[in-house]
Amino acid sequence: MDKKELSVSEFDLKTHFIDYWDEVVRQWLENDADYSKFKDQAKEQSQIIKAINDMFGVKPEYRLNTIHMPEPYWGDPTDCSIVLLDYNPAGGPRVNRHTTISCKSCTGCESLSDKDKDVIPSMTFIKYVDEKIKEGEQGYSSIALTGPVFKAKKGLDWFWDEDNGYEGYGWWQQKCGWLDHLVEVICGKEGNEEKLPFAMELCGWHSQKWNNDMSWIDNGQCRTIINNRSILPLFAAMRESSCKMAVCIGAEFRIDWLEQFFKNKIKDVTKALSDKIMENVELKKSHDIVDKDGKVIFADLTYTVKYDGKENIHVDAKWNVIKKKGKGPADPVNRNYRVFKITEGNESYYLLNTNYRGSNGHPAEHFWKFEELLINEIKNLDKPCKTGVNILKGRS
Fold it and tell me: What is the largest CA-CA distance in the chain?
């Protein structure tokens, strides 16, 4: 366990992230989700759990729930086309047959009922990881590095079963179209087609809800853990790939919070980008959005873009709905975007944050054309620049 903040030069992606989380999950399995018995690597994570749960007190809907196996990341951080980061992990008080074991000491947890046990499939996520460990493989990374939530893998049919499957798979499937679109916009139609996204959590444990009050990060030891297990892995993944941009879906990342980790290396470039993109000729045109068969889904799509005077680019999307008796206007929808530039040595990285009133839902197709224009403007900030990107995100 590292008691001090690691530097960029000290950080090793395999040792400090992949191997680290394999050991955390191994300890979790050995101790039946009783984090009070954690040692070494997982003892460090118990400090995060305690800090958050102490802050939220008796509100079980906000407390991290350790009956769910931690899922700190999905995909391969050393070979990715997109990096996603979020601080709102899935889970909560209810039982998930794939990620839950009976907990003996966690306040607010629910043990598996007899009914739950009757419908547990022959193989679960927990059993699969446990078997990998017993077979001498890495453990958690054995499944996470294959990216099963993004791409079906032979022999894991149980993972996608509609009735008994892993619930996180459904969440990811909703995002796949958007992710594929971003890869194409950022990397080009011919680039990185075989590389899968890499998704990581600010906190690998589970909570049904997440409070925007992130004061627990100010806790000295928590700050060190977040730096070593989330911030540095993010940069290491971007450094290993061709991507120099990250995207976060969810509640806003505040500049005052980011400055705790990036100090004088971070700059909010949202206002400068909003000025540039509003000069874009394409932005002022209407667009038809068609499906893969060429059928028009959204006709005459237009955008109204403005800087909200504080920190976000606010985008309204308007279009006409094709109806049996012609077409008529639909209710407009809106989305916020915010962009940070982070300088590390001679390299520039970008953090693109997209949200809608704290929702971590991905942007619908209405905004895909706008995102294409925005990403191109981000690329233009530091010409000549490398093609590629990284994306940050989460689940709830």
Answer: 67
